[in-house]
Amino acid sequence: MFLGLLLTLVALKEPARVLELVRGVPVPSDLKVETLPRDRIRPFLEEAIRDSYGDKFDALAELYQALGLLPAGLDAKKALLDLYQGQVAAFYNPKDHTMKLIEGMDPDQPFLQVILVHELTHALQDRRLPLYKLMMERALSRDNTLALQTLLEGEAVLVMTMASMQAAEGGKDLDPNERNDILEKSLSLYSQDLSGLVPDAPKFFVNDLLIPYQVGVRYVFEAYKSGGWKAVDALYQHIPCCMEQILHPHALTGCPSLKSAALRLKLKGLAPVVTDSLGESGFDYVFNAALDRPKAEAASAGWDGDLAALYKGKEGRLAVWFTRWDFPHDREEAVAAMLEYGRKGGLKVRPVVNGRSAVFFITDAAGPAAGLPGTLFDIIRTLEESHEQSCAER
């Protein structure tokens, strides 16, 4: 055991040196490090899911199935575990503030060295923020969770890419403009469609796995170009609450929540089971399944709040997606896109609209046809006025 720990510490020495060289911040000397046996990876991931979702994971998976985001009949937990288990080589665990290396990995492998730089960046982030606490607070909102992950992974990918450049250039001190030009070209690789790297996993899970890396590195790099690492540090003064703040960093948005208004809806014979806010990036994914890329991006860009809710009763299940958009014409675009999404996905989509708001009733062919309660239009009017924050700005 002692020999394994010694080898682990040796494996971290060079990545820690490179990280300090690139980021200008030393790895904490008291960082806890341990190896994780391969047969403990899956139990560890199962525990992480329980920590994050409690008893809500299966209900959320059913909500995503009702929205057409996951295939019907999918064992969602197994699919997610399979996906993440295939990506693990080393990782930083904010729950116990420990750097973990998978037993049997070759510490001299260049790929692992780059991964260790990435994960050590997360260790630095954990000294800046209470990462585990923040993750738990945001766990039951996809939009809030992705926003935090996108900031964290964006910085880690940028540091990792700069570390790779440092190695390729043999430590040569580059002109800042030249360095940024090389970085720009390197980071352009992340803008490509990388979903084919895991072709057997559900596309929605793969999309959520990749977003923090692909979108995050662009978000953090733009800050870096404007003011170096001080500008990146400043991003942590106001952690993004929703993906809209990352996708449109210069727009004024408060990440509105529609939860208090939406949960007033009562449907005869149906009870609410679980809710989630999927955010602008969620609609971008949905609309991309129905429209070409420019139209999908334009239609999702008008997002101004959403809440999807799963209702169940004796006759089956019904998804209700409450949405609000920046302007009435944005709402019209979104309704047209959702109807096309339903048509292509074999879902019955029934929109009820007013002003900037739209409520979508979504079922499969066998789903219940819920009557519209008299309070629905009052609820929609309330959506127009809601300015509740989706997460506390920090």
Structure description:
By secondary structure, this protein is α+β, with helices and mostly antiparallel strands. The chain folds into two domains: 2-240, no CATH class; 259-385, Protein Transport Mog1p, Chain A (3-Layer(aba) Sandwich), CATH 3.40.1000. The protein is 53% helix and 14% strand. The protein is built from 15 helices and eight strands. The strands form two sheets. Strands 4-5-6-8-7 form a five-stranded antiparallel β-sheet, sandwiched between helices. A three-stranded mixed β-sheet has the order 1-3-2, covered by helices on one side. Helix 7 (142-168) packs across helix 9 and helix 12 (279-288) runs antiparallel to helix 13 (293-300). It starts with a helix and ends in a 9-residue tail after the last helix. 39% of the residues are buried. Residues 1-7 have low confidence and may be disordered.
Q: What are the salient characteristics of this protein?
A:
394 residues; alpha+beta; Protein Transport Mog1p, Chain A; 15 helices; 14% strand
SSE inventory with pairings:
Layout lengths: L1 H22 L8 E5 L4 H13 L3 H10 L9 H10 L4 E4 L4 E5 L7 H19 L2 H8 L3 H27 L7 H12 L15 H33 L7 H5 L11 H4 L8 E6 L2 H10 L4 H8 L2 E11 L2 E10 L2 H18 L2 E7 L2 E7 L12 H10 L9
Parallel strand pairs: 1-3
Antiparallel strand pairs: 2-3, 4-5, 5-6, 6-8, 7-8
Helix pairs in contact: 1-5, 1-7, 2-4, 5-7, 7-8, 7-9, 12-13, 13-14
